[in-house]
Write a structure and sequence with these properties.
Strands 8-3-2-12-11-1-17 form a 7-stranded antiparallel β-sheet, covered by helices on one side. A 6-stranded antiparallel β-sheet has the order 9-10-13-14-15-16, with helices on one face. Helices cover 33% and strands 18% of the residues. It is α+β, with helices and mostly antiparallel strands.
Amino acid sequence: MRGRTRTPHPVPRRLPDPGWRPLRTVAAALVLATAGCGVVGGGGGPQPGQPGVVTGFLGGVVADEPRAALIGREVLSAGGNAADAAVAVGFALSVTLPSRASLGAGGACLAYAPGSDSVNAGVPEAVLFTPLPGAAGGDRPAAVPMLPRGLFVLHARYGHLPFENLIVPAEQLARTGFRASRALVRDLQVVARPLLADPNARAIFAPSGKPLAESEQTVEPDLSNTLGQLRTAGVGDLYVGLQARTLEAASRTIGGPLSMEQLRPALPRLAPPITLPLDPDQASFLPPPADGGAAAAAALRVLARDPAATQAAQARALAVATRLRTAGGDPMAAINADLPAGGGGGPYPASTTFATLDRQGNAVVCALTMDNLFGTGRIVPGMGFLLAASPSRLPQPLLAAGLVWNQRQGFRAEAGGSGQEGAPLAAAYALLTSIRAGKPLPQPPPEPGRANVILCSDYLPGSEKSCGWATDPRGAGLAVGSDSQ
């Protein structure tokens, strides 16, 4: 049977300053505070705060790297909500897929909590932490690490469990080791030669002297220590504290200098999404500077009129992205403008996406990037993570994610699109085809796009049996959840 227990939404909290709030020190174990969340087992079964304590319908998680997806599901199973699962997935990806999502990465998320009494009154909201340029100089200009603060703000706004506990699974993976996934190995094969010229990268990605093979074990002790410091001292330490000073000094030695002047003010921001009608629902997309969202919205408009017009939708998406990058302005004005087909601005760097959904209908979909596969290609000495490439040197990726919702009925669908210039079309195509077919990702988007999708065709909360999740079959990701005891 499916679990039918409902719990109230967590009490909304005032958004703290992610640069200064200290975090509590906790034991290095996944012990999550979940009193009152879901159906709790007793006797000799899982105890509160342990994966398995919530039975019945959990929701789902989809990510481009399998271990990160499984960690997200464990958080849902332990009583976490969609934002908690997304934070845990994001930190896990910093260990298992650093080619696209290290601690040095940037990105953007759409978060949704149904109901007029929810934190954002039942309307999606964007959390923007796109890459910012570091200091000038050096032979490998780097971006300011934005992922830790971005995940912190997402959690502060929408999360439920203690933030520091959601870092623990990633910290443990880095300390005890993990087996390289197909997703990581594929990226490594593309850039192995220049990447492994860095001795610190070579120690992680070629521990046997050859590039990691699929399922080969590797450990990241320096990264584990950095994650542990984030857990105990707080995320702000990487921007204003001891870790910030360490990063400032170490970054100069690898040709991507960062200074306290860039680190301290590098704050994420909350913004309303781009929202279009998709009768009887609303479709919301990431806003600029994550301009792949506007491009995806433009593609959706074309596909809504003619689902087979994928080439026209792709041309329209790139035209809108080009207009925003060259002229800026209101994204809806660009979407509505009469623009020449196609556009420049490429080639666009790689990205990765993931999506989470919980039993209450809370949902998060994120797109992350290093602005280049493996970013600058150099590990920060003593800290164990790659810096993203500076957006002042390379074009930014088209970060594309969308969410379909209904003010009265709740969550319906979410999708993240990746695949360089194909990312916006992938997100729009995945949303529309999934909704019309009544199942997630009935066919993959056109090349080179890739998509991750979660769908509740009859909305959530209320219709758990209509929910499903899918990852692109051409990728190496995982879609996982639970819909029964």
